[in-house]
Amino acid sequence: MVLSLERWEGKVAVVTGASSGIGAAVSQLLVENGIIVVGLARRVDVIEAKAEQLQDKKGQLYALKTDMRSETDIVNAFQWIRENLGPVHILVNNAGVTLENNLHDGDSEAWRMIFDVNVIGLCVATREAMKMMLDYNINGHIIHLNSVSGHKIVNMPGINVYGASKHAVTALAGTLKNEINALGAKIKVTVRLVATEMTTMNPNSGPDRLEMMKSLPVLKAEDIAEAIGYCLSTPENVQINELTITPVGEQI
Predict the structure, then answer these.
(1) Which residue from 66, 136, 195, 245 could staple onto 252, CB 3.0 to 4.6 Å apart?
(2) DSSP string for residues in 127-179
(3) In sequence order, what DSSP letters do the residues of 58-69 get, joined into one string?
(4) b or e along 179-197 (b: 16 or more beta carbons within 10 Å of the residue's beta carbon)?
(5) What amino acid positions are annotated as catalytic residues?
(6) What is the number of other CB atoms lying within 10 angstroms of the CB of residue 212?
(7) How far apart are CA 7 and CA 3, in angstroms?
(8) CA angle 110-112-113, nearest 5°?
(9) Quick one: how many helices (H) and strands (E) in the chain?
């Protein structure tokens, strides 16, 4: 089986949280393969700079300023895409946030932000993409970026509600697949699991987490992008429900 992204050339993909890390790497890979990518993020200037760097590639990168905590922002972004670029064929739900605090004395506003981005924002983006996929009878692909924290309870300082939000992503993917099957739609859903928490080192993490991360094997954002490219390259009759990516030496 020869794998290729050729069937997606000229089609529209949305990548949330596209300004840095995995989102930026995924956007670049898709553009290099001739896909029209719309990157959603608050730091739109960073995506615009990336688009300049990718001008000579087969595809094209657009930047839309979007706060994934805002339903209005997300809905407006997808409406702009429909009116200016056409229907969405690929959605990569990459945007996610973790804010260190605890359950026993933590900040409820931080908890709320985590759920707003990791769960509600993901649901809204998925809904808006699905509307277009169904309206245009598209054989699309939706990918949820997940975490080992969405599959088991991890022992990590300050993780608070993050694991609960990622367990929600796992459940939402399964529920979405059931809905798609009931509709008879030809849309794939993949949950991509990274085994190492906070795959790329997060400079906003506290000293305890950063010190712990230094002792762990860590994947690069480009590694994750390649895995997503693999999922998208499979034939339409092949469904990858979950793809687990781990660095060599990682125990899960």
Answers:
(1) 195
(2) HHHHHHHHHTT---EEEEEEEGGGTS----TT-TTHHHHHHHHHHHHHHHHHH
(3) SSEEEEEE--TT
(4) ebeeeebebbbbbbbbbbb
(5) 162
(6) 15
(7) 10
(8) 65
(9) 8, 7
Cα–Cα distance measured from residue 216 to residue 211, given in angstroms and rounded to the nearest whole number: 9
Residues 52, 39 contacting (CB under 8 angstroms):
no
Q: In whole angstroms, give the CA distance from residue 67 to residue 42.
A: 5
The structure tokens 């367990």 sit at 167
CA-closest candidate to residue 59, choices 89, 31, 93:
31
> Residue with structure tokens 């064929």?
89
Among residues 75, 179, 71, 73, the alpha carbon closest in space to that of 120 is found at 71
Q: Over the stretch 5-63, which tens digit does the pLDDT of each residue have?
A: 999 999 999 999 999 999 999 999 999 999 999 999 999 999 999 999 999 999 999 99
pTM of the model: 0.91
Determine the Cα–Cα distance for residues 160 and 98; give it in Å rounded to an integer: 9
Residue 174: which residues within 8 A CB-CB, separation 6 or more?
none
